[in-house]
Amino acid sequence: MGSGASAQEVPSEELHASLMGEWLGHLTSIEGLKSETGAELNGRVGEVRDVEKRTCRLCVRFDPRHPKDRWKKVRASNCRQTGLQASEGECSFCLDAGEAPLIRPCACRGEGDAVHLACLAEAYETRNTDRLE
Fold first, then answer.
1. Which pick of 5, 6, 82, 98 has the fewest CB atoms within 10 Å?
2. What is the DSSP-derived secondary structure letter of residue 54?
3. Distance in Å from the first CA to the final CA of the chain
4. pLDDT tens track for 79-128
C-alpha cells in the first residue's frame, strides 16, 4: 500500500500540524507523479498554501491568480522544498506585484523582503558582470 492514508484511515491532528509547520508558505518542486495528469506537474514549482485536513495532502498553488479550487493536492512525498518561502506584496526590485510569485530569499523582514525570482537572478547576473569589468 502507498505512503498516504487509506480511505478508512484519517490522518492524525499531529501529522496535519506537523505538515502545516513544515510546508505552509514554502515553494515546492513537484516530482515523481506518474498519472498522465499528474506527470504534467512534475518539475513545476508552486507555493504550499494549505494542508488538506482529511488526507494531509499539500494544497499547491502554481499561479498567484488561481482561486483555491484550482490548487493541486499533492502528497508531501511528491514534493521537494526549494528552500525559498513565498510572499505577497510587491517586488522590492521592480516594485511590481506582477503575476510571478514573490520569494523571500533571505532572513530580512519588512516591506522590502520579497522579490521575483527573475528580478533576483537579473540583479545577481548584473552584479557579477560588473565585477568582471
1. 6
2. T
3. 59
4. 999 877 777 778 888 888 777 777 777 766 666 678 887 788 777 777 75
